[in-house]
Amino acid sequence: MELLSFLQLQTAVNPLLIFGIALIFGVAGGIWANRIHWMPTITAFMLLGLVIGPNGLKLISKPMLAQSSVLIDIALGLIMYKLGTMLHPYAMLRSRRLLSMSLAETALGYAAVFGAGLFLGLDTLVAAMIAAISVSSSPAVLVHVSEEMRAKGPVSYRAKSLVAMNNLFAFFLFTLSLPFSIDAAAGDWSMALGFPAYRLLGAVAVGIAVAWLAVQVARQLRVGDDHYRFAIVIGSVMLTLGICFSLSMSALFSPLVMGIAVRWFETSKHKISQVGLGEGGDLFFIVLFVMAGAKIDLANLWALGLVPIMLVLCRGFGKTAGLYLAGRFHGVDDKASAAASMMLMPMAGMAIGLVSTTMKLAPEAGSIVATVTFGMVAILESIGPFLVTRALVLCDEAGKLDPETDEWQEASGT
Q: What is the dihedral of CA 396, 412, 112, 305, to 10 degrees?
């Protein structure tokens, strides 16, 4: 009995156990999805996560979900970095079409959600924060589905650029709203103004500094050393995340800045921005979507009623209208604009990170923001893979990528 009692005390859940469970069940879901041709693998990952999560078989409990945050942070960091490498600052600023389409879908998407939030009776500050978070689209779904379908072409590249830019805009809009929520909670304007600015500027500084360091290391590579480029990328993302966690900076925004800065600093000799994450990156992608499925709270979603559904519809209308109007102005084909808007519908990574920040700094407003936003995320992450899959077929870019000859390409926005 003493031995059993001792072993029970020594038994503890750990991230490695969660990682293994999520991977095994996630792969099983992927195999299942491949046999059902109409189902995206991301949807299968999330369904398996829902089945084994707290609302299903409880193989993954709520405490286990809390302990898995480091795995999710790594996955999101890799995805945000990869997204950032698609944006070269000069190319982004030179493309009036890309800038105007991004500003239009951001502005109309924000206005639609904010107006709908007020109409549904949400507090002005809460509506503003939810609207800012809703500006962001999920890079994980777009990147993963595009790679799975071997998509290549101007529409999908432009959509990836738009996702990168709306994540930037979402973070800035959220940072503008955050001081008011902190002041409402603490009544201290020095804290309310100083800490969001510190998180923003610090994340930018860390991203740029680590990008410069990574490029300097890559420049030392000689012929035959190319296999080290993958290690440089992974190490740089981990270093960025570690510094941000240690110094309470944004671990979502900094990897995105790092990816953009890498494109800025690097030369054509050793382009680490072209390094694909490959099968190693797939490990974290699978875990990310399985855990996302496990986090879906069906009871809470049901209790929210029509609020998340109305906000999802308004967000979709605003983004679609923005891309359509800006696209017509610049001569973009209506079908291409429709496909791009479908690719921007999923919402997860940045949204979840910003909600977590709100919960820590302004718990009173954060509880309402979290409840509504997670309801929206549950809906959009469920239908998002289907929308992206149909969009890639609609714009006729599925199956156009040849992995043997096509290198990683930037989204030029043209």
A: 60
